[in-house]
Amino acid sequence: MSAKPWSFALASLGVVILSIIAPFVTANENALDPNLAKNGSVIRYLFTDVTLDACRSTVRILGDGDEIAFGTVIDANGSIITKASELRGQIVCRLKDGRDLPAHVIAEYQPYDLALLQVDAADLTPVKWAAGDDPPVGRWAVTPGLHGAPLAVGIISVPRRAIPVEKAVLGVSIRDTTRGPIVKGVIAESGADKAGIEAGDRILTVAGKQIYSSEHLVEVVRGYEPGTLVKVVYERDTEEIEIEVTLGAPIPSLLHPNSNDDQIARELSRRRADFPAVLQHDSVLQPENCGGPLIDIKGRVIGLNIARAGRTGCYAIPAGEMPGIIAELKKASHAKVSTGVRE
Description:
- By secondary structure, this protein is α+β, with helices and mostly antiparallel strands.
- Helix content is 17%, strand content 35%.
- It has eight helices and 20 strands.
């Protein structure tokens, strides 16, 4: 049986990449020029031709002038989908030809954190979703921008799977004492920090439940989803204080308070869990670059990037899911029309 034509292209690309980086590799792997790493400018440049079609269906989403997401064109008449939870402020879509068009949010699809936007245009290039099975683990995953080399290059690292709801965290480390659980440390920018909890405070109750130990605190808090507002009563200098705390998500710096992961924690998507089905790839993709198409080595659109979830873990909605999702968004579009402004 003869090999498929694209397999030769894949093999040839691999040979080209190896020939480029081989002279720069030494016994010390850290000596490799960053531009020649997988997501370096030189390697990304090799995928430029692959992204040409998908670029035409990609738009940049701006919120009050800031880059907040990418969008994917789904029809010629101005319908665009993007990541809903990143939308804020006055929403504008920047097209490949440089036009900035005000956008209105006309529907949302919560299961996948998607929003349907509408702009005043009639000449857009709609995306063409790849048909057939999901790409297997090990295949290239490329994220186009609006122009030139792609923004990120990675590999499909995990086959299709569901991502469960994240469990909430309070944002403190606790030591158990004979007096009860005492706050040992507070994570910067966590719900506890913003509510004014300090080291030395003794946690008495959370959401009306008396707290007996650090384990019990974790058990109670994890019964809620991130974003839930709960009442916390604590003792400070013999005074009982009641406050409201917005529980957070378990980003790396909250799970490991002594780690150096603060930077990566700030670069994760606001919503990065509770998805029915995703493909995981290891591209280094910033949250503001989610919402656009993900393509393979043949330029086929194999998914829609929906979240950066870890240091080297990003999620994409499989292409096979998209027609049904888009149908649901369009069905719901008559029920919700906004001014295009998000708080």
